[in-house]
Amino acid sequence: MSEQTNKKKKVGLVILLLIIAAAVAVIVLNPFANIKALNPASGAEVAGDDEKPAIAVSAAPVVRMTMQNYIRGNGNVVDPKALDVYPEVVGNLTYLEAKVGDRVEKDKVLAKIDPSRAGVVYKESEVKAPVSGTILAVNFAKGASVSPQAPLFRIGMLEALEVEMDIAERYVGSVQLGTRAVATFKAYPAREFVGEVTRLSPVLNPASRTLEIGISLEDPDLMIKSGMFPSVTILTDKLTDVLVISRSNVLYEGNKAYVYVVGNDSLAEKKYIQIGLVVDDDLEVVSGLKEGQMVISQGQTLLTNGTSVRIVE
Question: With CB atoms counted within 10 Å of each terminal CB, which end of the chain scores lower, N or C?
């Protein structure tokens, strides 16, 4: 056993000495020096390591186009000529001959009210339709107590429906009588109804700070119904033939806006700009750029003035 152990130790020692000798030879002789000398191209790469590589960026040209600003919201289809019908006495609703959607003629009896009280009996009071039209709302059920303070019915002529919509105070100056609008309805998803603003409330709602407006829509096929809930786009400011870039290209230095453009020799140039109208991601450039200049759209946060850039798709 002892002879075998000594033999293994000797073999291991020999292997270790060979490894040490090989390492010393590599360090002293440096066999890779000749390979490097034979390959001058690799030396050029090393020499070029001090030069900063070009930064890959994306860019888009400054273009001329038309910009259309808008206000978007929801509205409610109403009959602007609708009338509320009130009872003349306080009492119980004993007769009700009307439901929503009924067509009624003027002077038709819609309801009767018994004003009698304990110990006193009065003749029933009739509630008649003041005009011919369609019942839009019935606010009480038979047997309910009613009074002249609350309307029993709402009657509409349904001749010219209107979309009521509230707009925020900041938009009031952008909307006038005749301003164009487009409405869509869930009932007709593939169709747009065009119209214009035909009514402006003279006062703002003090609670919501909004202004109520009325919009008349073109509906030759009578598809729009009272009570519908459309999505409305009011078309406000429109600019034609203006310089436009993407809003996401713009950087800020305090309150100054700027972009980077690709200049001569593929160097980034910092350009301060004046911003005009902004609609979604489109931004009007009032000054600072020219049509056709390539504005850097991706990678601009990595740049400084004069940085070498390379445009990639």
Answer: C
Where a domain ends, among 209, 229, 249?
229
Q: Give the CB-side neighbour count of residue 19, counting CA atoms within 13 A.
A: 6
- Check whether residue 304 and residue 244 sit in a common domain: yes
Element at 4 (helix H, strand E): helix 2-29
**Tokens at residue 90, please?**
């306080």
Name the nearest CA neighbour of 234 among 220, 213, 206, 218: 213
Q: CA of 254: how far to CAs of 50, 245, 247, 269, 276, in Å?
A: 34, 20, 17, 19, 18
The reported pLDDT for the residue numbered 9 is 67
Whole-number pLDDT of residue 44: 37
For the chain, the first-to-last Cα distance in angstroms comes to: 74
Would residue 76 count as lying in a domain?
no
pLDDT tens, 223-239?
999 999 999 999 999 99
**275 belongs to a structural domain:** yes
Of 156, 185, 204, which residue sits at a domain end? 156
Which residues, at least 6 apart from 265, have a Cβ–Cβ distance to it below 8 Å? 308
pLDDT lower than 50: segments of the chain: 1, 35-38, 40-48
> Does 288 share its domain with 256?
yes
The number of distinct structural domains making up the chain is 4
For residue 235, tell me if it sits in a domain: no
Q: Give the pLDDT of residue 15.
A: 73
**Which pLDDT score, from 0 to 100, does residue 29 have?**
59
299: nearest Cα among 283, 286, 311: 311
CATH number for the domain harbouring residue 306: 2.40.420.20
Q: Residue 74 domain-assigned?
A: no
Alpha-carbon distance 48 to 186, whole Å? Answer: 64
Domain of residue 275 covers 55-66+240-311
CA distances 166 to 2, 162, 170, 200, 240, Å, are: 103, 13, 12, 10, 28
Mean pLDDT of the chain, nearest integer? 89
